[in-house]
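Run folding on both entries below.
>entry_1
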Amino acid sequence: MGLICPHAGYLYSGPVAASAFYELAVDGKPDTVVLLGPNHTGYGSALALMREGVWRTPLGDVAIDSELADKISKETSLIDVDELAHRYEHSIEVQLPFLQFLYGNKFKIVPICFQLQDYESAVEVGMALTEALVSTNTVVIASSDMTHYEPAKTASIKDLAALKDVTDLNANHFYETVETQNITACGFMPITSLITYANGVGAKEAKILSYHNSGDITGDHTSVVGYAAVTFKK
């Protein structure tokens, strides 16, 4: 019912992301994928959803699930309908080619972009998803890279501490760990919302599928970015 996937260049994080999408492929095809990603650009609303149109990649067009987008919007006043926040943002769009490789264009998406960084907002979004996604065949993907630009050993210690909270399905402790240990995971808000949603729909397991860093590709472990793939199952 949920995944955490990285969003760096495919050369660096593609193999980690592929482990998550393999797990999804084994499970089957969702009708809709709700994509939660951080806002790196600062453009647009603090919590921004697109409710109509298509997203285009070299593999074709993917339609937005307007009906589900409206259901999510009705469950929380925090989310604005705003295209600008998505226009130059990469964290969500890089997930689409993996999904298109698996399912062609026979699925829909609801993209939600996070600029807010407070715990209460993340929880409210997660609770809104819990209510809106009832009786739907939907997967929620939180797009995030982990620690940025620290030595590989330090990054691993920090990231694995945060991921322990993820596998414990403890949204509050995950958020506190990120804050207190200064973990520069760019998508920690989407992850917090996903854990909240997972608990809301009765998830029984969160499992780390893969964890690596950019140094595993470049050979330079002095300053790396961490990448994790996690699956959430009922």
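>entry_2
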Amino acid sequence: MTTAWEVLDWRRRTLAAYADVRAEPDPARAHETWVARRDELLRGHPASPVPAERRAAYAGADVAAYDPAYRFVLPVDTDVPAERRELPTGTDGVVPLDRVGRVALPGLGRLDVWWLGTYGGGLFVPLRDASDDTYGGGRYVLDTVKGADLGGDAAALVVDLNFAYQPSCAYDEAWACPLPGPGNTLDVSVPVGERYGSFG
């Protein structure tokens, strides 16, 4: 069983990785760093969502090559109707999400931006798309309460779909994850980011 100290270390390493991503001026190089650091955590960290008995055979995440066409720096439309979602989870109780805005991705559609209303709070932007090689439950682009923060603010939020990653429940059904609703579902395929791979 994962200890609180192991989860703390995972969070610190994730925060450090995303800090390095934000500090790197070349998004493609930042993406390389992110892939390497995430793989290191997934393959060997005791808090990895990859089941312990499968880690030795796990080759790393299947991540598409970086495509700058899927990186956006966008204003957040904060004039959106209020909406609250309350999501039951297996480990965190009921997680409240409040919609605080929406971003329009040119040629792709719109994604709602949520505020995760648990202790500490954070922005949350999940994504479900029409790809047939990504996790059917969706992926996360931003989850700042857990460190997945690409930078920016309401005037210019960084939404880089190359960094879309699978939630923990994609690796192990023992996890319960908030998944995208209709406002975070695109009708088109997003062929970048982490794809749904097997454990080999």
